[in-house]
Amino acid sequence: MTVGAPGFGIGNKFVVQIAQGLPPAVSFSSPIVLPIVAWSPTTSGTVMDTIGAGAKTFKVVIPKSIVNNNFYSLRVRGTNPVAFSDTIVMAVNVSPTANITTIANAFINRHTALPNDWGFCDGDTAVLSATPGLAGYQWLESGNPIGGKTQSTLNVFQSGVYSVKVSNGACFSTSKDTIVNQFSPVSDISHSNLPTLVIRDKNTTIDSLAFCETDTIILTGPIPSMPMTTIGYQWIRDSIGLFSQAFPRAIAGATQVGYKTARSGAYRLVTIWNPGGCPDTSGYMWLFVDTIPDVFVVNKSWPGQGAPSLSICPNDSTLLSANVQSNPGVWSYQWQVRYPVTGNWQNIPNDTLATLAASTKIVPGNAQYRLIVQGEACDYTTAAVQVTVVPFPTVATVPADSTFICFGDSTQLAVIGNALSYSWNLVGGTNTSFFTKSQGKYVVEATGPNGCLSHDTVLVKLFTVNANAGPDLLVLPGEVVQLNATGGVMYYWYADKPVYFSDPYNPNAQTQPTQDTTYYYVDVLSAEGCFDRDTLMVVQFDPTSVLVDLSNVQNFISPNGDGKNDFLDLSEVVRLDSCGITILNRWGATVYEDTRYVNGWTGTNNAGDPLPNGTYYIILNKDEEIRYRGAVTLVR
Question: What residue ranges define each of the domains in the chain, with the CATH number in brackets?
């Protein structure tokens, strides 16, 4: 405004008045006084020159008490002297009230400690509504306009700080910030610690647990962390349908933060978080209850064995086994032994199979065995079984190691010991003693308690003396005969007729027969004391005394295959009797013998080889009596 000269007096005050209406009809009878909030130019903003003339600038605020849009008249009044300025006219638009009046699908968020904090559940949509009926709207997030959001409502899908700027003509207003948080509850499941607990997970997420059937695990859901918040719980367990599909089923009565179970299955937790009633379902917690049936140790037969036994012989073994076995890799095994049976249990190194050969080569005496079965989470120890080692029976042969007998003699073999029974290999008997004439290795098998076997051996050697008095001889009457015996260390000669010996104890004694045919005998004793006898026939033959009788005895053969005199025919002399024949050469050596002559000699020796041409001497005997003596000439 501009104040004309001479100005105002001391104590003057300026008052700004406003009244609804246009001049000249406007009435200032009850004007609204507007406070002056600033002067210009001044440094203090409220100090002004209220006396002097000149231009003066001031600022006033249109009060909020004006609630209608209209034209208003404004004037300035001075108080010393009282004077009024001219009236100016202005249009006043009422400033709109910017408020977020309602928030649908949301709740006062007590899950955080923030003021003016609203929440909505994950998956829902919060709807913010501003004061209706205004000219314009612009929704803001963190003070920044949201493009295209110029309606009176705003759908909120994510957390943020929201406000709305509204307009009513030329005036604008912005609401206070409203915090809207999307609430995503997390229903993690924790578990109690167990002595047999095994965490199966291969990654950092623990959701697969195994424990022994003797334990019970407690699953625990989340606990409210803010005042005035609550959580509802429902534990569920999946069941498996006909086609292996999972069907979640609520566990009746399982509505607490913790759930105790000893059953395998896939467990989850459904939670309702209040305020807001926001639901959440946890991930799976897979529980595997490990179970081991009552295992015990059984005694099994080896392949080809009859009934097994826990009583074994030294240097023997028996087969122990778990009565039930798992699939490969499910259970592990460890055999333990207590030896002596009053000692402590010890693991048997490397014996980690379901079977064990309990051998006396490893544990030489009575011992107890048991099996520790280890599942994924369970351990089970079987009852002990005892393997008893039964000693071998004692056995010894009499004689102890070896003996010898002479051919034709016998010896007695016997056995002593504490066995229940005995069996000899070569005789097949069970006698404790017997006589034998046979050479061989005699093994006696002694059977003791539990069928334990011991053996002993005696070697029977047979000594044979081959007494040899030499070949039969053909001598002339009065000729001295040289005897030559072999086969031993001591000799004794004698004959079946009176004869002369130079020394009957000399194997090379000389003798002179006194009759035409004499049988000489020599008894031979070996170095081992064994005896044998051989016989020598000495024939005293005078060729000049032989009268040839061609009508009765053949004295010429010519085995040339012409059918005439091919063999020696003595049928006239034999006369159907069984006669033996001896044929000697000119030097008295026997070249052919037969115990029963049947007219078959063709001038060969006993091996079938042809004899040379010459004269041979024939002795035909019947029961050691000479029936015929003569000569035959062989010409091929």
Answer: 2-92 (no CATH), 100-183 (2.60.40.10), 190-290 (2.60.40.10), 297-389 (2.60.40.10), 395-463 (2.60.40.10), 473-540 (2.60.40.10), 543-634 (2.60.40)
